[in-house]
């Protein structure tokens, strides 16, 4: 699937950094029930986790951990979400007080087969498993909790892909319940600087690309990387990312679309 199947989604107009080329990319609906957009969001969130951790490591926050927090055994199924919502802030405040340094995190919810929730946490919380067991229980959670060193930053990518991928199979989540949560002020994901993007309504795409043509820019096909006009002289444009066709340009435009208007994860 090369793009979102839903009609009337916005269009991204891209202009190359040197101003010579312009292109148009159909954006997605950004809904988790969309097979295209859910996959794109999954990869976007894994990038966001990785680059955020790398950003903090460059700033001196070197030690990261991977923890698991289970819900209370008397709160099973969908009731476990209420258990999490009622008690998370208490546990979070204890983590902040006990932590030596700033507390940053990525929360990855996951369901057991009976739909009971448990939480995976990539964080700078250095407290050991014994602390997680005792404090988690004291805050109203379960007791099968643990916290271990994360290791290399790329492990965060594999965890996000794994647990977000599992959550795609869950048909119903509570309204406003995020599949992935980041601590406040988590740094933005870097985007491809070979193109600058603007998002416009679908019905304005043709007019926008004609405007770029009037400015003297060469219009290229985002999927094939070729000059859009069909003629014997049409050829593939040797420009960064165009050799990869739709994948690179769609990804670049999709990331840019999150930066300009998407806040929900």
What would a concise description of this structure say?
This protein has 265 residues and is α+β, with helices and mostly antiparallel strands.
Number of strands: 9
Q: SSE string, helix = H, strand = E?
A: EEHEHEEHEHEEHEH
The appropriate CATH architecture of the largest domain is 2-Layer Sandwich
Helix vs. strand class: alpha+beta
Give the distance, in angstroms, between the N- and C-terminal Cα atoms: 22 Å
Strand line-up of the largest beta sheet: 6-3-5-4-7
Low-confidence stretches: none
Number of domains: 2
In what range is the share of β-strand residues? 15-25%
Mean pLDDT: 84
Rounded to an integer, what's the Rg over CA atoms? 22 Å
SS field, number of helical segments: 6
Structural description of this entry:
This protein is of the alpha+beta class and 265 residues long. The protein has 2 domains: 11-31 and 195-261, no CATH class; 46-182, 2-Layer Sandwich (Alpha-Beta Plaits). Helix content is 35%, strand content 17%. The chain contains 6 helices and 9 strands. The protein has helices at 35-58, 79-98, 129-138, 154-167, 205-214, 246-261, and strands at 11-16, 21-26, 65-70, 105-111, 117-123, 146-149, 181-182, 195-200, 218-219. Strands 6-3-5-4-7 form a 5-stranded antiparallel sheet, with helices on both faces. A hairpin with a 4-residue loop joins strand 1 (11-16) and strand 2. Helix 1 packs antiparallel against helix 4 (154-167). It starts with 10 loop residues before the first strand and ends with a helix. The model has no long low-confidence stretch (mean pLDDT 84).
